Putative putrescine transport ATP-binding protein
Amino acid sequence: MTSASPEPMPSRRALPTEAAAPRLEIRNLRRFFDGRAVVDDVSLQIQAGQVTCLLGPSGCGKSTTLRMIAGVEMQDSGEIYVDGKLICDTVFRVPPERREIGLMFQDFALFPHLSVADNVAFGLKGSKDQKRARVEELLHKVSLAQYIDEFPHHLSGGEQQRVALARALAPKPRIMLMDEPFSGLDNRLRDGIRDETLTLLKEEDAAVLLVTHEPEEAMRMADEIALMRSGQIVQQGAPYNVYTRPVDRAAVGFFSDTNILNAEVNGALAETPFGQFLAPGVPDGTEVEIVFRPQHVRIDFDRNGRGPHPTPSDGVAARGVVKRARFLGHESLVEFRMDFDGSVLKATVPNVFLPDAGRVMWLTVRRDRCFVFPAQG
Ligand SMILES: Nc1ncnc2c1ncn2[C@@H]1O[C@H](COP(=O)(O)OP(=O)(O)OP(=O)(O)O)[C@@H](O)[C@H]1O
């Protein structure tokens, strides 16, 4: 439920030209450990050439989902299909080595006693020349052709990771499963390797399911994000849609800091110190939360005890006092103690803005970026 929110964007995934079955489809997967459903009725479809990120906090069941698709973990119920063909249910099971799935994990462990070329060729079939051609093609694509005859320990972490990617993609898997593949890498390397990886994955046309707990990574890599919590997918869609049309407060909070105002609905309106918010269809007397991100708070200077005039887009200004301001590199985070109830609200401002603690200022919020949800208490 939102008071107003931006128009949804179409998914970035390419539509199949004909009614092709999804490359990967999982239906109603469940897995119990000690009587607890750690994966609880998860369904997903991924087309060839599409990258879907399974995004969620630690322990929410992402890796277990991946392991079931890889075939190293058995589901308690549900089915897995590849190109429309059943590969696994509770009685039938194609073994992992025949699923044509490429795997890549954080500890990508290259074989130390094999050269880069032999690592990449490891899962390849065909003549010596065919294998060599594929190895050269992939090492060229990951910009490591010059290391073809080196051993892994001569390569940096980032280079080894790219070799592991080439190795996983060498047999042209129909599906790539990637579990936090970049988390072992230095921050400075990560962005470049993510971009290179994405380019290569797209060229190879596999359906990719990438597990991550980092929203930024998912936003950067995914055509679609499947947001997972407590064993379930709570929201799925293009990154822009998941970010701008979150299903609940936790979905907002997973991507950024949040500010929360409490209010009660009367006549389909929630009255707050920032003005009224639409709450269509919500019964009178219902407690709601108005949730908004710090980047959607606008700060104005005090003008002889007054703030800016109310506007339809920013609503009414509320007075606060600077509690603390910190420079974060590309933006500044300013915390305010609000006059209306003593609560703390956060605002981010591009570049450097570091007002002194105690300074009186006026806050407004971008009304089209606020979400109204039932109160969670
Ligand atoms: N073999 C197992 N036996 C018992 N419990 C398990 C087993 N494997 C996973 N779990 C539990 O299932 C839950 C989900 O684990 P899973 O590894 O799938 O989560 P995750 O979302 O990938 O987390 P992380 O990002 O930390 O790896 C966790 O509570 C975990 O402790």
